[in-house]
Amino acid sequence: MLKPIRQAVILGLDWGSSSIRASILTRDTRHPENVYNEDSIPAHDEHYQKGAFNAALYLDGIGKVYTGEAIDEDREPVPSKPFFSQSPQTGINAIDALLNGLRADATWALVHEGMEEIAKTVFKSIGGFCNGNNELDELYCIDEIGLSYPAHWRLGERTKYEELLRKVIPKESAWVKPDVDISFHVESLASAHRLFSSPRLIGKIMPPSKTPVLVVFLDFGGYTMKSNANDLSYHRVGETFSAFGGTQLWEQQVGIFCRKYVEAETNRPKLSPRQRAECLEMFHREIKKFETSEIEPMHLTYRIPLKEGHLSYSVCLPKHSAENCFWNALAGPIKLAEKKIAEAVTLSSRVKVVLSGGSGKNTVVQARLRSACERLGVSHPYCMNQKLAKEDSWNISRGAAIATANTISVHESMANGAAFGFQRGGYATLNSPEGLRSSWEEEIEVSLDLNGSRSWKRWCGDTTRIKIICDPFLQLPDRKTHLRFSSCCDVVELPQPSKGYWEFELRFAGDGDDLRLVVERGYMGHTGRKIFRHMPTLELPLYYDPSSCCCLIKTDVDDEGYGLLVTETGEIVACPREPTRNHLERGGRPRLGESGNIRKRKRMAPARRGGVGGRQGKAGVKPTGHLPELKPPNYLPKSTRAPVISQFNGSTDGLPSAHLVRETRSMESSRRENSVIPVVSDTVVGRQALSPECGVTNHSFWEQATVAESGP
């Protein structure tokens, strides 16, 4: 008997703070489907839409650790997501104390048991979905999994997440590929991929225009608010940024208030877990009814059972107490969002704000962001949740699957317009509280693109640093000679050159899974007339990262946010956390020992296929320091000054990720409009990041007064 043909699919998984959601994406037709939990009972919990999987644990040691959808109202549930961290902060003092006290080992054993039960429950439903419920259903085989994760997660959390899933995924099954590839995507980027996969939604956000648009994507989730500026070609501009807060913390604040309120009433017994749950369920129903920009007083009721019937009590949150609970939980994320919108306005005259996530549904959050947009002359935020109301909770899981499916080869990325270049920088001692900053030139010539390689010659002083950067879509629709600094991803920092002239050149070597970026270096002495010494060739393995849509280094090193550095011997390590004092005084290289222990990082999932250009490693655990954080120039959007030197405030590592501050000089742009580069391009309609009306003055200053070195 012939085996039924199964369609290859990608699984997208979103492990949220309150629930878990899964989506399937067919590889050939890109048809998305949500995997619904048929056992879910939304009446038990107002946190999430019907069809999601409950993700709460019970760690009191009484009964089952994980009860699935059978909510135990006599026990206090604990969100499971924080337990991917080795030092979780659950927001529940009693649980946090257990995890660090005498009962820590026993409590962690319960955590591990419960997490495994959650994963088994989810994958049991996913297996049933792939096998079909009847003869008419399609049969699926998962050949790749895309996992979303918060921007603040590091190597430990991601590795623990993957190990948990691999432990419960069947080793031999028709519905999942053995040793299935697993890739990782930041939650806010996954949500952006979901949004930009819909032509209908793209049209709503970005009407046809010759002028590029900068999209600020704000995802207000349960525990963190994350944001990134992202364009229709998906390449990210600036690091994602996060602030602690959200509806989960808001709920915790209300729960604390309820407990204290009842304790203050001398004639009432203490609030039991069941009664606390009743109050919080009513709280979630109340906030869903909000229709104004004001926090309203709340009356949360709970019942005390009697031998016959029950007594009903109320917890009254007056307006000022309700407001305190809200702002204690959401002030940080809202203020950070307002700040980033203001920064975006300094970078582009056309800014769009997209709002998503559970807390983004709240009318108070929406009102504050609308006011911020009005003050800055930006149109009101586009509320993604309202446009996808029936399935908005699955945005991230769908986006993780879509981002995983967008994996292409490095050669295909180059054909899409990617270009590499060298960027010169140095340590500058400035009159500032920090005293030391890293400065990087903003005029960067193209050294390698699809059309070939071009050598790059520069003077290097005692503290000069050189790094390779990549612009994902520079050469579309037409060829350019300089990279757009604001749109570039840092790839890797090179060994620190000695004083004198140097010539650098890039080229590709190998093919398929073995594609490498080759770096040729020649020392030309103090005259710069000819090469006196050829340095050892550096060969760096490349892969295409579908989350940031850029070609990056494929490595096992975890940069921990400090970026990647290649040594003279070709070893890839994490950049030093900071330069040592003698490094600055003698202009020497940072010694490997000074950077701390080499931090190993789990490599991106291995290549899936060969073929032309090869499909390189997945998004996996990507380097986290390869994009500078967006920081606006210190001038208004209509200024005609051009930014010429970037300074990373307090950033003393190789690939800076701290605040970006742009120095400006009194240079007038030759164009009619300002010379600020709109860093997001509408490549779907073939627009480039630099609009025809907007020029950039190609000048950079490398003066002794600005950088602590001088030329010959």
TrEMBL record:
It comes from Colletotrichum orchidophilum. Residues 602-638 are annotated as: Disordered. This is Uncharacterized protein.
